[in-house]
């Protein structure tokens, strides 16, 4: 889950009426990359990110090290800025720039997470899982059904939620068939990441690119065919190794709670409102999302009125399953993820302010070229999370056309599939698979996933029009 910020920054000191671009003017950078204090900031970020990558081993939530790193980095920057004669106003403006980035993305993601949690509480996902389990598919059919559903659900939900849903289905029907569980989960990770790559709502990185104003909403859908290629090629090869045997029948029937389908409809309406606010009114998408949150609040209010009315028939204290508190759904949002974004944005923003992103941009984009840099960035995102990779590239603000921005959107989105630790979907499934899906079991199929990665890039170049060399 697999969740950037939009608008054009009118001037360095004013609050933007829409999302600010993720970059400062060159004159606003401190440019002290050779100073020992600046080196210390880089070391702090690297140590923090090593802790993030080791989250499953050390059981330290990923938000904690990056939030600490952000505080330490900006404290050192403040000390260094004072030494360089930078005024408090200029330093504050740099920090507030990152705050605008974070606040806009925070509100957008908070609404999306609240809707997902509300649908989960109404048993929308549990009902879908129950339906799949009872259909009587064989193992190979389940391999394809879970993969295809993951591909088409992740553009609307997110890759993390989608992977967890399909992973629960795989575990329920796979039982002790370790080979099936392992292959099916690899397939779901690839499908979830590929499905999120062609939708502005499918992944945090696509959301960041859209809200940074680099690609228009409708333009993302030209990545649909490359995303399909990225999913289908590995799936076709892996499916040949999946048994056609029949899993044991399971009786697991779950019905959607009252209001569940209406909440799904309101979520789709909220997405439409967010797109309309941006496209027709020039307002940032998070305003549309917050408006959609209000619709959910009013709907659950009336839903609860009906539930409370019917509950009068029951003895006092009896649990009323109709009651749905939106604020409880807000409280159940992925706060570790939301605070992780805070740490990433402020840490990378601090390195940008020191001038490091400008140096990297010159070495890579001006040195080896845009296409190869964007392809390499996708491979890097298999090791380092794609969010800081994409935020760093947006901070560099290389002068790329729409084709190249779509290329980095594709590679950053699907590159994480190369390793199980490269995306939230893979990390989540490793934690819920009871040892059946591991880093090594995913690594055995990385060569197949790499073929899909290369093929999807070639499809983008072939269909969307620019020679690779």
Automatic annotation (TrEMBL):
Residues 65-413 form the Citrate transporter-like domain. It is found in: Membrane. It is a multi-pass membrane protein. Residues 1-25 form the signal peptide. The keyword Membrane applies. The chain crosses the membrane at residues 35-54, 66-82, 102-118, 139-157, 217-242, 254-277, 283-303, 337-355, 375-394, 406-431, 443-463. Keywords: Antiport, Ion transport, Membrane, Signal, Sodium, Sodium transport, Transmembrane, Transmembrane helix, Transport. InterPro entries: Cit_transptr-like_dom, NhaD-like. The keyword Coiled coil does not apply. Pfam families: CitMHS (PF03600). Its main location: membrane. Belongs to the NhaD Na(+)/H(+) (TC 2.A.62) antiporter family. PANTHER family: SODIUM/PROTON ANTIPORTER 1-RELATED, SODIUM_PROTON ANTIPORTER 1-RELATED. This is Na+/H+ antiporter NhaD/arsenite permease-like protein.
